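User: I'm writing a short report section on ligand binding and want a predicted complex to refer to. Could you take this sequence and heme C and write out the structure as tokens? A short remark afterwards would be nice.
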Amino acid sequence: MRSLSVVSGLVSLRVRQAIFTFVSLFVFVLITSTCSSPRPTASPAPAQQLWGDMKAVVSVKELMRDFIDPASDYVFDAIGLRISMKGEVATSPKTDADWEKLRQGGVMLAEGAYLLKVPRPFAPDGDVNNSTGPDPAELSPTQIQAKLEADPVLWNAKVEALRNVGLEVLEIVKRKDANELWDAAGNLDQACESCHVAYWYPGEGALMKRLDQKLEDLYGAKGDRTKTPGADPK
Ligand code: HEC
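Assistant: Sure. The structure tokens for the complex follow:
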């Protein structure tokens, strides 16, 4: 009897050990699986979501005319060269009010750029741009739309580039570094033009290259077509 109870004691010890091992293994697996792999239900990041839908009010063309273009003038108008009897005088922001205006422009550009991510028509109904006749200067809204749909990543890159100049302006305002504004105005001009050449009047890029080549052939040097920042985009 005694030897039997020893055997049963041994058996139950084995069983208990086995149960213990099994349970600890289970706990271990549970811990590692919850720690190492993200639970599929916890995936949406709420910070990335909008509070609600965004709806466009105007076309891209009108947004340009009534928002993006006036916003850019806060930057372009902040600096410049005035020619007077005494010679050239560079103007730049000086007073707190000057810097405040520039900050407003920076905020409008940095925030406003993302309005170009909201789907909207490119031009008002019935407006086909300067896209008819021989050798049209502009693409039609339908052609622009097709270009965007073929490569939305490029459109978004142009939007981000515009936003980045807005952020650059805000940094400059923080440091009140008027000298850097010249660079920022150049970058802004570039951000506008590079999107326009890609989507609005792609023929112009090729035309300008041909013009440069002609000037180089004629005068043996690169033609000086440097644009005044803020000049009308067309
Ligand atoms: C992401 C692309 C993009 C960027 C960046 C962009 N534009 Fe435009 N813009 C367009 C497109 C596309 C049109 C033409 C829309 C149409 O007419 O169908 C346009 C048209 C315009 C027009 C013509 C409006 C009219 O009434 O005819 C102006 C002015 C303009 N843009 C100014 C600017 C300025 C200034 C900037 C930079 C501060 C800028 N845009 C940046 C895409 C862009």
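A remark for your report: The radius of gyration is 32 Å. The pocket of heme C is lined by residues 60-61, 64-65, 68-69, 72, 116, 122-123, 129, 141, 144, 155, 158-159, 162, 188, 191-192, 195-196, 199-200, 233 (CB under 6 Å).
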